[in-house]
Amino acid sequence: VHNQLTSQNPFPSKYNFNYLQNQAIGMLYLRYSKYLTQSLTLRIEDRPYLNKLYAVLDTKIEYDLTVSKSKLYVSIYNLTNTNYQYFQDIPMPGIHFQAGIQFSPF
Q: How far is it, in rounded angstroms, from Cα 44 to Cα 56?
């Protein structure tokens, strides 16, 4: 096995310094009715290896089913379809969603 340490790349792992340098998070919670709510989350992040700021907007819409103490929800991630990476050379997905039902036994 060849050790890839060189003067240009003293660290063989791409994951050594993938930390957040700066981050700001803002949230907005909206109630449309007694049963229907929406939350919006905006994250602005700065990672040193990307050399740029990026913003990601997510939302979650919930409908409360009070009879069964459950909630239907739809979450949509990366509404802005931003190209960004948590780890170098591993891109995060563009706009994507998740839907489901949450049960609460109590």
A: 7
Q: Which of 88, 67, 71, 85 is nearest to 13 (CA)?
A: 88
Q: Cβ(63)–Cβ(51) under 8 Å? A: no
Laid out side by side, the sheet with 22-31 consists of: 22-31, 36-47, 52-65, 70-77, 96-103
User: 47 burial class (0-12, 13-18, 19+ CB within 10 angstroms)?
Assistant: buried
Please list the ranges in the chain whose pLDDT falls under 70. Answer: 1-18
pLDDT at 17: 58
- pLDDT at residue 18, rounded to an integer: 62
Residue partners of 1: CB distance under 8 A and separation at least 6: none
